[in-house]
Design a protein that fits this description.
- This protein has helices at 47-60, 78-86, 103-113, 127-134, 140-152, 173-182, 208-215, 283-287, 292-304, 323-326; strands at residues 14-18, 64-68, 93-98, 117-121, 158-166, 186-191, 204-205, 222-223, 234-237, 245-248, 261-264, 269-271, 279-281.
- By secondary structure, it is of the alpha/beta class.
- Strands 1, 2, 3, 4, 5, 6, 7, 8, 9, 10, 11, 12 and 13 form a 13-stranded mixed sheet that branches.
- α3 (103-113) packs parallel to α5 (140-152).
- The longest helix is centred in the first third of the chain and has 14 residues, at 47-60.
- It is globular.
- The chain binds S-adenosylmethionine (SAM).
- S-adenosylmethionine binds at residues 23, 29-30, 68-69, 71, 97-99, 121, 161, 163, 190, 192-193, 195, 323-324, 327-328.
Length: 328
């Protein structure tokens, strides 16, 4: 196996796979108010098809896989997929992004199947606000329980992803940061990314620089050294904290120049950039019986056309593709 890199010499080793476009929450910043046109069941990749693509990807240089959605835990038998992916020798890290509602029920099984880590999206610690943000979630308690169960079965580090929206949950920055001291949480504050769909109720953007200013009242944020993680977050610690605070700045300070990732949608489109409309359909060749060698070639060719960077700062937004369909 040789390393995979794009035409800008960026090493590409990370594939995010959306296993479904269905979600049991309808977050205001992620899904249009009228819902989304769901992919027909027959167009959603089977676990065997996902395995075939992941194996080809691994053979050309992908070593890390994250499962996402929609909500990945609403797809039946996810531990079975994890086990299949874990059997691919050169995949050394399988992780999951979830809203946590169903996590307590399956964390142990996922861990035994080979899942290493989990990120839980949680934007508020208050039940009434949870209902507002998720539009339909009446069970914040289930998410908190899911986080604890995931930690107890060793899916560590459990990272809590918070999309910060001015006027909605920015008053909870301190509460989340305090959890890194009181409960050893690893919290990541993420800038809201604009979405083209006008029916998405656009929350007010807050840059990470403003978030950091607000957190200063808790003490100095010391950078974690050596730096941790293999993604775009920059990590810090408050005095006395075992947990960490991460910041992700897709808008105020893009990290495209170190982007190492690709995305596969639930209907098998390979996306080279979250904020681009370009996609490569792998489903037709796959269902037409493409050989493993040709699939690897197709994959490599796609990677070679990965764009250098997104163009959010020039006002460019991809159309017709809310995050719930891409996997965030
Ligand atoms: N259902 C899973 C979950 O809730 O984590 C996985 C899918 S969700 C689309 C993946 C991630 O995308 C979540 O962490 C979510 O907060 C993030 N996300 C969705 N819309 C976003 C936006 N407009 N800006 C920033 N992050 C967004």
């Amino acid at each position: 196996m040789t390393g995979l890199s794009d035409s800008f010499q960026r090493p590409i080793n990370y594939l995010r796979i959306s296993v479904t476009d269905r979600c049991n929450l309808h977050c205001v910043y992620c899904m249009p108010s009228g819902g989304i046109d769901l992919i027909a069941h027959s167009d959603i990749l089977t676990y065997e098809e996902i395995y075939t693509i992941a194996k080809a990807a691994a053979e050309v240089g992908i070593s890390k896989i994250r499962l996402t959605g929609g909500e990945p835990l609403v797809r039946l038998g996810l531990p079975q997929l994890v086990q299949m992916l874990a059997s691919i020798g050169s995949i050394d890290d399988i992780s999951l992004t979830t809203n946590g509602i169903l996590l307590s029920q399956c964390a142990a099984e996922l861990k035994s199947a080979g899942l290493r880590r989990v990120n839980v999206s949680l934007d508020t610690l208050k039940q009434d606000k949870f209902e507002f943000i998720t539009r339909c979630g009446n069970n914040l308690g289930a998410v908190l329980e899911g986080i604890e169960v995931a930690r107890s079965v060793g899916l560590n580090p459990v990272k809590i992803n918070v999309v910060v929206m001015a006027g909605t949950n920015d008053d909870e920055l301190i509460d989340f940061a305090t959890k890194t001291i009181s409960d050893d949480w690893h919290v990541r504050f993420i800038e809201f990314m604009p979405v083209a769909d006008e029916s998405i109720e656009i929350p007010r953007f807050m840059p990470v620089s403003e978030m950091r200013k607000r957190l200063e009242s808790l003490g100095k944020l010391e950078p974690c050294l050596p730096s941790i993680g293999n993604g775009p977050a920059k990590y810090f610690r408050l005095p006395q904290a075992k947990g960490t605070i991460g910041f992700i700045t897709p808008v105020s300070e893009h990290f495209c120049f170190s982007c190492n990732r690709l995305r596969l949608t639930a209907d098998c489109k390979l996306l080279l950039c979250l904020m681009s409309e370009e996609e490569i359909d792998l489903k037709k060749p796959l269902r037409d019986g493409i050989s493993s060698a040709d699939l690897k070639q197709l994959f490599k060719g796609a990677v070679a056309s990965k764009p250098l960077r997104h163009r959010l700062d020039e006002g460019y937004l991809p159309k017709d593709r809310p995050f719930s369909q891409v996997g965030g």
